[in-house]
Amino acid sequence: MAIPRYKLRKYIVSNALAWIIGIIWLIPFIGVLMASIRPYEEIVSGWWHLHPFTITLKNYINAFNHPMFPISQGLKNSLIIAIPSTIVPLIVAALAAYAFARYSFPIRHYLFAFIVFLMALPQQMTVVPLYFLLRNLHMLNTFRGLITVHSAWGLAWIIFFMRNYFSMLPTDVEEAARIDGATDFQIFYKIVLPMALPGLISAAILQFTWVWSDFFLALVFLQNPEKYVATQRLPLLRGQYFVDWGILTAASIMVMVVPLLVYALFQKYYISGMIGWSTEK
Amino acid sequence: MRRPKSLTPLFFLLPALVLMIPFVIYPVFKTIYLSFFLDGKFVGLENYKEVLLSPDIVNLDRFPTKSPPWGALIHNIVWIAIHLPATVFLGLGIALLLRREEVKGSSIVKSIIFLGMVIPMIVGGLIIRFLFEEGAGVIPAIFKLLGIERLAITWTAYPETALFAAILGSIWIWTGFSMLMYSAGLASIPKDYYEAALIDGANKFQIFKNVTWPLLKPITVVVVAMTLLWDLKIFDVVYVATGGGPGGASMVLALKMWDYFARALNYNYAAVVAVLLTALTLIPALWLIRRRE
């Protein structure tokens, strides 16, 4: 076997560089994992000291059943909020996106440009009036209040994303169905939606993980500690006299495992959603 | 494109309008309205003057000669000045490296780097705090090993280092985005372009400069615009990593807005900061829209 020397050198350099970068990016996660499965005394002067090495689930149990801000309740609340906050905007945005993709109507162009503008908007721009609006509607501190805000907020990007997706679909099946006498809504419901399923899955996955990961809107609209979502509880778990990294890292893992699982199970949809959402016009 | 005889498109749009008008569009205009009032009285641009001249927003007595706090607006600008080039070039470099045929397991490395984009930002911020903590964290330990005692400290606890801990950590979080976008962009460049360039006798650098980089330009536009938007809106990371402190040394605009809203209970100043933040996000947003038309 005669591998040219320069090729061997290139092989080693590229692989070493790639894997060093990979390890640098992984180290923070290794640290979190190590701190979460070991007692506080072992990691307080650095989790990389491996003697002694005691494995314990105590941190996870303590975070899960925390006396003030149990993560268990937070995970439950996050789920109660994230599921409807995914389904509602997905349906509503798919309808609107179809109108933008298939019909011409007055001010269509301006309306769509306005929706693109809303995508770039910081959430800070809406929360002060929303706070008072929800208070007047008796929806402050309620799950349905936060679900409504998340649903409305998610619409802009899902409309943008689904309009792009619908625009790529061929229209001849729709035309054929129309000749056969199908109504506009039947065409949308029975033909377009099934064809757009991969796009809908991508949108659902991204919306779900973004709502799950949201911190700011929950911070503004949920002020009752029992109603706090998982991300909201995380910063509150530090110990009283010192920062208890064991409990914080264990809780972090429990909070991030949900989006990580979604990513692992639906990687293809996640990535295509991520790329499609930000590049296609 | 169908020209409807009826109100069909309105029927499709109606649910979206019902949700967006009260819960997104009305609050945007109401925030602008609130920014011109104080205690229920119209004050014109007085609030803007007050906020913009406050050392919490721009502090030219300290910037750039002294250590932070420099004011939230300057912190966001410093953030962009470091984070934008770092993530764009790191992402591009990593995408180019991992595309090489000889790299084994490149998809695993890619997934690892992308993890920062998948986890909630609040977790990302907590990990940054952990990384920069003296004793428990890796980074002070490395500086201690190198004998640089000045940086072997809890970075988030000192005004000189808090902002930079958050910025450096956010590079770790966000590089996965630009890497993913550039990887997709590189994969879409046809192979024969490179073959043609090789036949013409171009060297590697020339190929990159004249073939790869120009063809990646639409991707670069998106990456730069999205990164600018992310840097301007940064909130969770700072909230949990430093809380904007110590003494405002790592305060950013989005967190300052929260500060006025939830701590000072000054809704009008909160509205002013929100409007300023939105005005800044319009720059990359409009640039992105125009570049794509």
Compile the SSE list and pairings.
The complex is a heterodimer of chains A (281) and B (293).
Chain A lengths: L4 H33 L2 H4 L14 H7 L6 H32 L5 H13 L3 H13 L6 H26 L3 H8 L4 H12 L1 H17 L2 H6 L8 H4 L11 H21 L1 H13 L2
Helix pairs in contact in A: 1-13, 3-13, 4-7, 4-10, 5-7, 7-10, 8-9, 10-13, 10-14
Chain B lengths: L7 H27 L2 E2 L2 E2 L3 H7 L19 H28 L6 H13 L2 H11 L6 H8 L16 H26 L3 H9 L4 H12 L1 H17 L2 H6 L11 H11 L3 H25 L2
Antiparallel strand pairs in B: 1-2
Give a summary of the structure in a few sentences.
The complex is a heterodimer of chains A (281) and B (293). With 281 residues, chain A is an all-alpha fold. Chain A has helices spanning 5-37, 40-43, 58-64, 71-102, 108-120, 124-136, 143-168, 172-179, 184-195, 197-213, 216-221, 230-233, 245-265, 267-279.
Properties at a glance:
heterodimer; A: 281 residues; mainly alpha; MetI-like fold; 2 domains; 14 helices; 74% helix; 0% strand; flat; B: 293 residues; two-stranded antiparallel ribbon; 13 helices; 2 strands; 68% helix; cell membrane (chain A); transmembrane (chain A); MetI-like_sf (chain A); membrane (chain A); transport (chain A)
